[in-house]
């Protein structure tokens, strides 16, 4: 047993010591030697994070008010809460960790898009995955939504590395923050979801009763 613990300890220690090297090595492979058209496409995808993250909750609200659906309004507030809290957590961690951007530290990393401030975690990735996770939970019955949104969020994260503005660990950090924040928000909103579903169930039972039983 002691031998196994010793091996695990050495593995974790070696991984932690080598991780910065692998982090930079992977970033270098993803960042360098791409065609201009590829980098242009990555710029479009990376900028889509801000627009899609704002547009999706607005569409939810529009549909909710158009159809007078209170349940969709709850879902829209859930998505907005996830996005706002995830963005605040990302911004706070950036200022606590204060990790320099890759091109500030390594001259061979090419900066191919706008980007400033601190590096860890990736704000674009955090926001994209917060929207993808929250929408997948809120509209879980629409099975196409999860793969589409998670695929989009993954490409947004990839674009941040391709364009040289974030390390792979920044992307991983953004995904973890988004997952944690969405999970906590779901716990908070779960009572609201359940209360609405219970009320609708009671309403449907009463509505389906024979006329002489309704009062």
UniProtKB/TrEMBL annotation:
InterPro entries: PAP2/HPO (IPR000326), PAP2/HPO_sf (IPR036938)
UniProt xrefs under SUPFAM superfamilies: Acid phosphatase/Vanadium-dependent haloperoxidase
Membrane among keywords: yes
Keyword line: Membrane, Transmembrane, Transmembrane helix
Pfam families registered for this protein in UniProt: PAP2
Domain Phosphatidic acid phosphatase type 2/haloperoxidase: 72-186
TM regions (residue ranges): 44-65, 144-159, 171-189
The name this protein goes by in its record: Undecaprenyl-diphosphatase
Species the sequence originates in: Thermoflavifilum thermophilum
Lineage: Bacteria, Pseudomonadati, Bacteroidota, Chitinophagia, Chitinophagales
